Amino acid sequence: MLPSCQGNGAMCKRGLIWGLPACLSALVALGCGGADTPVAVKGVVKLDGNPLAGATVTFMPAGDSGRPATGETDPDGVFHLTSLKHGDGAFPGEYRVVVTKIQAIDPPPPTNSGEPDAVLKHYQSLKSQKRTALLPSLYASYQTTPLRCTVPTAGEVVLEIESKPKKP
Question: Are residues 26 and 46 in the same domain?
Answer without folding.
Answer: no
